[in-house]
Amino acid sequence: MTEINWPWQYSFPPFFTLQPHAETKAKQLAAWKSLTLEYYRITNQAIVDIREVHSSPLFNNVSINRKLSSDMVLVIMEELENSGYACALDKSRQRWLVYWHTLQEWGEIIYNWVRDNGFIGSVCTTFELTDGENTTDQEFHGLDPEVLVRALRTLESSNRAELIMFDDNQGVKFF
Which chain positions lie within coiled-coil regions (predicted)? Predict the structure, then answer.
């Protein structure tokens, strides 16, 4: 796993408490959003379960004995959702899908690779896209399957792809 370069705020105890002053709070939330997206990009993870955040080094800095409250993590997730980088997976808003590119950006990244490699008019399995030999050098290699399908749906809505579901397999035809 790649080493995380924690920002200076991560070692600053007040960073782990939601600040009351509006301008300070806005900067704090922006820093948390950026740190969260970077952490999930580097660790290639996509699921945040608010009930389990205290076991995550992102939300629990043991070196200064500080951790975010579950309520503050929820605020950060909602901020990410408002900017297109996360969505709740359940009605109780305890499980979240996080993506370091918006779904539209992921769709464009994948579509550009498909176009550049001559796969327009072809069918690819989702496994080929995220785990295939042809994509090992691509940012979407190893992408969470749920994020991939949601990104492909953005291409489907713009008539540049069609998702194909058969048995336990998923594929996509690109136009």
Answer: none
